[in-house]
Amino acid sequence: MDISFKGYKIVTLSFFDRCLPEAHSKVSVPIKWFYGADLTKVSDTEFSLLLAVITGKEKDNKDPFVIKVAISGDFSFAWGAKEVVEKDALYSTAIAILFPFLRAQVNSLMSLAGYPNVILPIINTMDFYDGTLKAKCDAGK
């Protein structure tokens, strides 16, 4: 099976800063990153994958900043006549392709705001798929 990545677009890019610029280097980066995902079937051989990450709470003044980033990637795939489409592997691969772009956007936001560089932790794409998208895909969404 061949999977093609057509590109991505930024759906949400939000950064809310509560600190003075001179305090940025002293702020410890929030550890809790909350991830989300959604999948939209475009056709029998095309789909869009949405990945999102959030840290901080807008209503909680304890967090030095709030980040919200969501990106959507477009994919297509093809398989031979005797090949069976393994959806779990297909969607897990799509997550692995798109996730570095999400990480780069978060790192850019932090860097441009004057904070120390932050790189999102690497995720196990199969576990991530199982925890966020598998039930939706199995239900036929």
Task: Describe what you observe in this structure.
The chain is an alpha+beta fold and 141 residues long. It has a single domain, classed as SecB-like (Bacterial Protein-export protein SecB), CATH 3.10.420. The chain is built from 3 helices and 4 strands; from the N terminus they run ββββααα. It has a 4-stranded antiparallel sheet. Strand 2 (34-43) and strand 3 form a beta hairpin. Helix 1 (87-112) crosses helix 2 (125-132). The longest helix is centred in the last third of the chain and has 26 residues, at 87-112. The protein is elongated and about 60 Å long. It starts with a strand and ends with a helix. The mean pLDDT is 83.
Q: Biggest sheet: strands side by side, in what order?
A: 1-4-3-2
Structural category: alpha+beta
CATH class: Alpha Beta
List the quaternary state of the chains. single chain
Report the portion of residues in β strands.
35-45%
Amount of helix? 25-40%
| Mean residue pLDDT | 83
The CATH architecture is Roll
User: What is the CA-CA span between the terminal residues?
Assistant: 21 Å
Low-confidence stretches: none
The helix/strand series, from N terminus to C terminus, equals EEEEHHH
Describe the largest sheet.
Answer: 4 strands, antiparallel
How would the global form be characterised? Answer: elongated
Work out the count of structural domains: 1
Mind telling me the CATH superfamily name? SecB-like
Please count the beta strands (DSSP E, at least 2 residues each): 4
Question: Helical region count?
Answer: 3
Measured on Cα atoms, how large is the radius of gyration? 17 Å
CATH topology: Bacterial Protein-export protein SecB
